[in-house]
Amino acid sequence: MGYTSNSKYMPVFEAKKQIIEMGRRMYAKGFVAANDGNISCRTGANEIVCTPTGVSKGFLTPDMLVTTDMSGKVLTGRMSPSSEVKMHLRVYNEMPDIMAVTHAHPPIATSFAIAGIPLDKAVLPEQVVILGSVPIAKYALTGTHEVPDSIAPYIQNYNAVLLANHGALTWGRSIEEAFFRLEEVEYFAQITLNVYTLLGRANELSCAQVEQLMGVREKFGIETGGMPVCASGETNVKDVVSSAEVSSPKVNLTSDSRGVDVDMSALVKEITGIVLKRLKG
């Protein structure tokens, strides 16, 4: 996926090629449905290439992609850019070194966004180094200027953000890095769901261990990501659930050495109830 150039900006033809490939991967992984999601890449000091509105990310072609300036004005392209390009532009304007942005609705991460639970526990070394902590931006109406305003507080210090009742947004120094961070967000969400909800316990990384990993992060040249919540002992599902002001009284989740007793039908019903409760208010 690499290219050789003296410029820090990717050539337009290469940007289009990589956006199409990442759109295909995004669709294949089920991170988007129908025409959901959007991808962009910075190709100049005042220019980005982005996906258009109303097109599946799994079936993009070069002629569909749109070039805009940093205010969102269309420079080239026969289609209209996504209405959500506003949040991409906000990222680029806040962080000049960022070269790509991806937005999708990966199911598990989006469920956390709907439930109001940030992905901020230190449970995986790779998560601490590559991704860090993933906060939740307050709800904003899709396609409006409220969305970029909602993510603005997190852009400079993090690598990803969950959008309340909406999905996930990631950015990076290349299209690959932005997309890999999107994969990491969904994987992190899956692991978090497994250990805290299905298993009911997690041996979180200690603060000393997290400090060591922050040193590793620095060696990789990653300056953002925030500090995940660390602990010296074990944390069970009650700690995570209470932070979101939800509970699961119908699901028996034990957190000792005797094992876990999970009624899957009750679990699904309970999670559905939590999501519906959040959607209603």
User: How is the largest sheet built, in terms of strand order?
Assistant: 4-3-2-1-5-8-7-6
Compressed to H and E, one letter per element, the order equals: HEEEEHEHHEHEEHEHEHH
State the shape. globular
- Indicate the structural class: alpha+beta
Number of strands: 10
Care to give the gist of this entry?
Helices cover 41% and strands 14% of the residues.
Structure description:
The protein is of the alpha+beta class. The chain folds into 2 domains: 12-186, 3-Layer(aba) Sandwich (L-fuculose-1-phosphate Aldolase); 202-280, no CATH class. Helix content is 41%, strand content 14%. The chain contains 9 helices and 10 strands. It has helices spanning 12-28, 85-94, 107-115, 125-131, 146-155, 175-198, 207-219, 237-243, 264-280; strands spanning 38-44, 47-50, 66-68, 74-76, 100-104, 136-137, 160-163, 167-172, 201-202, 235-236. It has an 8-stranded mixed sheet with strand order 4-3-2-1-5-8-7-6, with helices on both faces. β6 (136-137), α5 (146-155) and β7 form a beta-alpha-beta unit. α3 crosses α6 (175-198). The N and C termini lie far apart (44 Å). The relative contact order is 0.12. The model is unreliable at 233-264 (pLDDT under 50).
Tags for this model:
single chain; 281 residues; alpha+beta; L-fuculose-1-phosphate Aldolase; 2 domains
Please outline the helices and strands.
Blueprint: H1 12-28, E1 38-44, E2 47-50, E3 66-68, E4 74-76, H2 85-94, E5 100-104, H3 107-115, H4 125-131, E6 136-137, H5 146-155, E7 160-163, E8 167-172, H6 175-198, E9 201-202, H7 207-219, E10 235-236, H8 237-243, H9 264-280
Parallel strand pairs: 6-7
Antiparallel strand pairs: 1-2, 1-5, 2-3, 3-4, 5-8, 7-8, 9-10
Helix pairs in contact: 2-5, 3-6, 4-7
